[in-house]
Amino acid sequence: MRASKWQLFRFFIIFFSSQTTIFLIPIIIGSSSYQGWIALIVGSLLGLILLWFTFHVGMLHPNQAWVNFGKDILGKWPHKFMLLLLLSWCVYYVSYDIENFVLFFGSNYLRGTPFLLIQIVIGLVIMYTASLGFTTIAYMADGLFLIFFIMMIVLFNLFLPNADFNMLPAFIHYHDPGIAMKDSIEVMSWFGEWIVLLFVAPDLKLEAKMLKRLVITGICVLITVLIGWSLTMMTFGPHLGQQLQYPFLEMVRSSKQDNLLGNTDPLLIGIWSSSMFIHSSFLIYIASRCVSSLFNTKASKMYIPFLTIASITIAFLYSRHIGSYYKHYNSYAIAVIWLIVESIPIYYAITAFFRFRNKTAK
């Protein structure tokens, strides 16, 4: 059964929000301070450029997966290199997700539990979910979307009583173009993961009208992050805000309300954990498709355990060198590498333009 167009909208809301709403806010507060809204808006709009190129490449063969027709555009071996590059990106990204799980649960709820044990359990869940395929993952995101939407409204209502709106003028009067441009590039790497769209073609036919829904998806994620950033700034300020690893969770815990709304942190943790599982599972699913194409085999599920083990291994190495993990995770160079991978559709779109134009001229 194929996923619908609006399911794709809800899926990408969960896919992007699993990262941006949790980890991007303190990074932007630490680097851009009061002008973070500029970086968020410009970076997300730049991410929509990657969406346009990705959609354009997908529309070249709307009934066929990019892993299959890519070689007709770029050539066999360059296409295989791009698959290998994307494969490495997926595995490495999942290792970040696993390590984030370990750092949060290991330090808050599972103290004393060996990191490797937590990583193995998380890896097994990711492995099983990835083996179910994109359609099942999309339905999981579909079920989570409504809970996520309601939870965001609840969180924003918890933020408002403690927010200092006297800080709003500082958002307008403080500007540094150099920092804003640099942080916009970093935000673009968070909002530019649209290359994964190329892997939904077998389950969902790409059509021109779908682009509008995906643009709306990007705008919705931007609004959510922008509101979260502004309320975090007005509640904790730029100095404390950048030190908070989980701003939304800290807001719930610092809430003065003793009722049900003031004790929603378990629900928030559950939503974040579920969205992260969806994010990681889909990346492993994509990596398995890449390996299957590299070796010209149809059974992509058989590679999922090996890819998950590779991510667990990288996460385990990071858990033994936490300093290196934070250095890499917050590195601007890593953000640039992320953008190089996320810009793969641009390489195909430009090559297809010149190749098809030359054929037409002949």
Describe this structure in words.
The mean pLDDT is 86. It contains 15 helices and no strands. The chain has one domain (5-350): Amino acid/polyamine transporter I (Up-down Bundle). The longest helix has 33 residues, at 76-108. The protein has helices at residues 5-32, 36-60, 66-74, 76-108, 115-131, 134-159, 168-173, 177-191, 210-241, 247-253, 265-294, 304-320, 322-329, 332-342, 344-361. Helices cover 78% and strands 0% of the residues. Helix 1 (5-32) runs parallel beside helix 9 (210-241), helix 4 (76-108) packs across helix 12 and helix 5 (115-131) crosses helix 11. By secondary structure, it is mainly α.
Give a brief outline of the structure.
It is a multi-pass membrane protein. The chain has 362 residues and is mainly alpha-helical.
